[in-house]
Amino acid sequence: MENNGGKCIIFSAPSGAGKTTIVRFLLSKFDKLSFSVSATSRDRRSYEADGLHYYFMSADAFRKKVEEDSFLEWEEVYTDQYYGTLKSEMKRIWNSGKHVIFDVDVVGGVNLKRYFGDKALAIFVQPPSIEVLEDRLRKRSTETEETLLARLSKAEHEMTFSKHFDKILINDNLDKACADACEMVKEFIES
Length: 191
Ligand SMILES: Nc1ncnc2c1ncn2[C@@H]1O[C@H](COP(=O)(O)OP(=O)(O)OP(=O)(O)O)[C@@H](O)[C@H]1O
Ligand SMILES: Nc1nc2c(ncn2[C@@H]2O[C@H](COP(=O)(O)O)[C@@H](O)[C@H]2O)c(=O)[nH]1
Hints:
alpha/beta; Rossmann fold; five-stranded parallel β-sheet; four-stranded mixed β-sheet; 7 helices; 9 strands; globular; binds adenosine-5'-triphosphate; binds the ligand Nc1nc2c(ncn2[C@@H]2O[C@H](COP(=O)(O)O)[C@@H](O)[C@H]2O)c(=O)[nH]1; Guanylate_kinase; kinase; EC 2.7.4.8; nucleotide-binding
């Protein structure tokens, strides 16, 4: 895919590790970063806006886009919950002359890194433990007991993906994790 020298920053982690929090912090610090808004078929949360956090659509509409080859990558991250990076979103960001920042699951992160190669910095956000992850997800209050358990049961396997990433970012103390993330991103986009 054509770009104007833009770079890619990929954040991946198990659900609840804190990647969205850190990505939002980075977007507030770096003018030259633009968030890749993914498409998803999961239900919108009360605080989420269509076109800002995600492009929300039905599972049928998502599958139609898959058939039309509209995605750079996509995954059924949880049963019947599809997530994907639209090629049109990438074009929008490259045309704006900005660097792109992704918040995707670990498989999507590995696939995007493989696709973009040296143009991409892939960062794995590591929580201190699965217990802390559970505590964060419960406090976030976005999940039912069923969806929370589904996310936790996937997390242990997802933690093993850290070795496929360029950097591991420990997210224990949030201020330190944000500062460390800033350093990693600054070094990469200035290189
Ligand atoms: N270092 C931290 N200490 C305590 N709470 C944190 C920390 N980092 C993030 N949180 C909180 O944990 C919750 C999960 O964070 P966040 O939503 O950013 O995770 P995520 O990895 O993007 O999850 P998902 O994949 O489900 O979107 C949020 O409520 C966030 O405010
Ligand atoms: N492979 C992809 N994964 C994505 C994409 N957009 C988001 N995600 C990941 O899905 C889970 C769940 O997210 P949530 O918002 O429902 O908590 C999380 O790991 C996201 O990073 C995408 O385009 N591709």
